[in-house]
Amino acid sequence: MAVYTDVADEELSAFIATYDIGQLLSCKGIAEGVENSNYLLHTEGGYFILTLYEKRVNPNDLPFFLNLMQHLSSKDLSCPIPVAAQDGKLLSALAGRPAALVTFLDGMWVKRPKPEHCSELGRGMANLHVAGADFDMQRPNSLAVADWRPLFDQCSARADTVFPGLAAEIDKELTHLERVWPKGLPSGVIHADLFPDNVFFLSDKLSGLIDFYFACTDALAYDVAICLNAWCFEHDGAFNVTKARAMLNGYTKVRPLSGAEYEALPILARGSALRFLLTRLYDWLSVPEGALVTPKDPLEYLKKLRFHQDVDSIESYGLEP
Amino acid sequence: MAVYTDVADEELSAFIATYDIGQLLSCKGIAEGVENSNYLLHTEGGYFILTLYEKRVNPNDLPFFLNLMQHLSSKDLSCPIPVAAQDGKLLSALAGRPAALVTFLDGMWVKRPKPEHCSELGRGMANLHVAGADFDMQRPNSLAVADWRPLFDQCSARADTVFPGLAAEIDKELTHLERVWPKGLPSGVIHADLFPDNVFFLSDKLSGLIDFYFACTDALAYDVAICLNAWCFEHDGAFNVTKARAMLNGYTKVRPLSGAEYEALPILARGSALRFLLTRLYDWLSVPEGALVTPKDPLEYLKKLRFHQDVDSIESYGLEP
């Protein structure tokens, strides 16, 4: 939950007046999302989400994110659509922060996804990859394999305070992944953070994708690998092969995976597990005393990493070998 | 800000199905209010606020609050209207808590009220008092003069850790108020918590009152006294006589105050200041380490109390003597 920024009444009204959305009727802070401040606005023109970008988002990346959402929605992918101000710009400023207005998207995220949801997710993610194919902006993944070592260096000294032997285990895995990380896989726009809370459903049908603030240009199959981790493990840590099969089948009905992509999946899944293990570990060790946000457990991703280390064929993900 | 309770998907859907409001389309936790968990729902039937009542609210009081809102809205007072479930009941349960659904009310609260807002507030409060006149339920004020001493006893020992001499100052004031507290003033439904964040405006016109969870049966002029404190002091502690005059004139245009009510105002304002000083002091001393909610400063109300102690006529509130 997060609403970090207080906005003065007059400032908000002046901001709204730069858009063609009529008078402001209501503004409520939303207790969701941890990176940015989000407000649900009701104006004479409809319902909108106002986002103030807090310091974790690089302002230089915002044109990529906003143009991407606009591009995807023009390709009939359901996602929040950035609203242009009267000067035609998608990106503005409010309360000293970069700010943008997007359309309100109905739908709810599913706290306990079932295989049907995973199938829908697979389909939606493939639609995203296809719709993004002709997007003309690029953004390198700022949390790609080359970025993990510097991140690890910032928390390796205290890693063992979280779990004994963690530093050595990460170091070994990192060395392996740096050596074998696949190159030349089909690449394009990936969401890179397609966790359940970023995927909306209505009556068990996917109704939209949100939160494109990690989106980047990378191997498409890496997005699939992220979702194997984010959607296909149970709360007790067990891998649910039925969900994985449903997700992969949902995906490949829209965009078939190549042989090289199938083969790379276990390594990509290890990499994805390590990426979230590292960022969570960093957050865990960096959280100030008395902070409002409880960091997510890094060890959840250590368990996922270990699972994929034992995978030697896509059979483990529920597919025919 | 507060969303305390996590509601499971299936439980929420089952809850919504007991109302005639169509399918659930969206549910967002609102980062407002400190007492209860509030969610903004979008369903096929419109927009609603779902409230889960947390432990500070006595469940036995809920029928009073919900029936009051229904009564007031039937008298054309703009406030959230409780929605009855298919069984006709206004009060339900969700996630182990009492729960109710009310209509969504447009409007925004004003962080820095101007005299025009105070005038509107006065008018709206008087409309509330008039509309409540024939409400047939009663609820004694659970934070009335007789309740202050027991509250003080719970925090007197540590009061001086907040401000040296505070315990003695409160004790003296309490003894005085217990002796001179006015009796026999016109009584009825009061809101009892009509702070700026509970009063909605649209284009500087009052658009509605919310949060009736302190409403009770008490002296109507006590509500006015609460608002003298909540609306007519500047952030630097100065009393703004222009705002007080605007508020009182707005009120009396709808419901004239009697001579006894005018005369009682300074004492009622002292009592109201002491009531909020005591509850804030209690919260300040009770807040657990690392709590999510920052308690409000009790000393703000010590300053307000001292101001009213020096008032000997309603001239100080901007009115003709």
TrEMBL record, chains A, B:
<comment type="similarity">
    <text>Belongs to the pseudomonas-type ThrB family.</text>
</comment>
<keyword id="KW-0808">Transferase</keyword>
<comment type="pathway">
    <text>Amino-acid biosynthesis; L-threonine biosynthesis; L-threonine from L-aspartate: step 4/5.</text>
</comment>
<dbReference type="GO" id="GO:0004413">
    <property type="term" value="F:homoserine kinase activity"/>
</dbReference>
<dbReference type="InterPro" id="IPR002575">
    <property type="entry name" value="Aminoglycoside_PTrfase"/>
</dbReference>
<protein>
    <recommendedName>
        <fullName>Homoserine kinase</fullName>
        <ecNumber>2.7.1.39</ecNumber>
    </recommendedName>
</protein>
<feature type="domain" description="Aminoglycoside phosphotransferase">
    <location>
        <begin position="27"/>
        <end position="257"/>
    </location>
</feature>
<keyword id="KW-0547">Nucleotide-binding</keyword>
<dbReference type="Pfam" id="PF01636">
    <property type="entry name" value="APH"/>
</dbReference>
<dbReference type="InterPro" id="IPR005280">
    <property type="entry name" value="Homoserine_kinase_II"/>
</dbReference>
<keyword id="KW-0028">Amino-acid biosynthesis</keyword>
<keyword id="KW-0791">Threonine biosynthesis</keyword>
<dbReference type="InterPro" id="IPR011009">
    <property type="entry name" value="Kinase-like_dom_sf"/>
</dbReference>
<dbReference type="InterPro" id="IPR050249">
    <property type="entry name" value="Pseudomonas-type_ThrB"/>
</dbReference>
<keyword id="KW-0418">Kinase</keyword>
<keyword id="KW-0067">ATP-binding</keyword>
